[in-house]
Amino acid sequence: MTDRYASFVQSGAGRTLVKRLGLPDPPRLRRHTPGDPLLTGPALLGAATGGRLAEPVGKILAFAGVEARDPLTIDADARFGALVYDATGITDSTDLRQLYDFLHPHARSVLPSGRVIVLGAPPAECGSPREATAQRALEGLTRSIGKEFGRGVTAQLVYVTPTGDDGTLTSLESTLRFLLSGRSAYVSGQVVRVGAGQAQAPADWDRPLDGQVVLVTGAARGIGAALARVLARDGAQVVALDVPAAGDALAAVTNEIGGSAVQLDLTTPEAPTRLAEHLAARHGRVDVVVHNAGITRDKTLGRMDADRWDSVIDVNLSSQERINDVLLERKLIPAGGRIVAVSSIAGIAGNRGQTNYATSKAGVIGLVDSLAPVLREEQISVNAVAPGFIETRLTARIPLMVREAGRRMNSMSQGGLPVDVAETIGWLAWPASGAVSGNIVRVCGQSLLGA
């Protein structure tokens, strides 16, 4: 679906009109192409007094081919692809001034589609109330930067558990590689938590899913098809699943990527067992389960019949629970496995005429919250993404004015693409991201809804 306004804004006449009238100004986003460098310029790396992550982050950046510069040795007119700050040494609200001193002089030196990343300590794991207070304050800072800097610049906060665990550092690397790259073009204002857990760095970061068996439900079209392509590009052996009615479209996707197709209605009683038996017979395991299948049956609650309610809850939420139960019971998801579910900002903010859908998507968030601590003992991570307005055939049917509002009410002033959701899920599916668990990552361009 073409965003004609965004295309017009890129023209000479459009640029003039936007400036004169103060209209939304959608930037041209930097998206990932295999072989791209992580950044278009060097990174400025700073740290608060007593920070514990600057040294390992410096090594991660160097290994990833990013030039990291010291704030004390740069030229006044230097431009940067990213500002990265280790705020783990901040233990009191008065220490927050150190962040201002780092960011203020360089706020205008970030290149278009640049990145701002602040690294902090999880408030719940801080040693004192004052430290927890100061660390929680970082969320307001990064979310505001995401709304201020413009030009496609994103801002994120990454809380890193204070361990010397190799899995933590590996997942910190995977997280930085995602957030610095074009893969995260439509992700901004987010808080990511990196904990302790099993994580394995790939031999080749351009193919971080080599040798991995990945199940994708709802893979025939839209976000699901983009998912299958991105995961296959990253080296995965993709098992693509959809309902029999979508068989032709599903076959086209799997033929394109060299994956395998499973035609199955997940709402039937025997579906979880049949799926488990297929995975066991063909692959012996499934390293990653991506719950993408979903439907909408919109009506206001007073006009909604029971079938609309039941079908949406069953497909979007209950089927995920049933599949997880069987796959986990049969030990088909090994240690180091990952589960990624697709929620929605409707599950965070609600949406008129979508009580069934919003309920199901909020339930997906509940699934992540409840499973993450349980599966930590099994060394299995579970996360969710929550897309905002994504340009698909479904959003193309939305009335024009509502569609335009959905596109413009975010820091990017535009809708996202299916590939933006797929890239985010891809990062959470990497073996290197195994210590990233219990997260709900919004792919919404920092939407104003539910912020």
Automatic annotation (TrEMBL):
Signal sequence, renumbered to the chain: none
Record-level Gene Ontology MF annotations: oxidoreductase activity, acting on the CH-OH group of donors, NAD or NADP as acceptor
Pfam families: adh_short_C2
Domain Ketoreductase positions: 212-388
UniProt xrefs under InterPro entries: KR_dom, NAD(P)-bd_dom_sf, Sc_DH/Rdtase_CS, SDR_fam
Coiled coil: none
Entry-linked PROSITE patterns: ADH_SHORT (PS00061)
Top-level taxonomic group: Bacteria
SUPFAM superfamilies with a match to the protein in the record: NAD(P)-binding Rossmann-fold domains
Family: Belongs to the short-chain dehydrogenases/reductases (SDR) family.
Protein name: 3-oxoacyl-[acyl-carrier protein] reductase
Native source organism of the sequence: Micromonospora halophytica
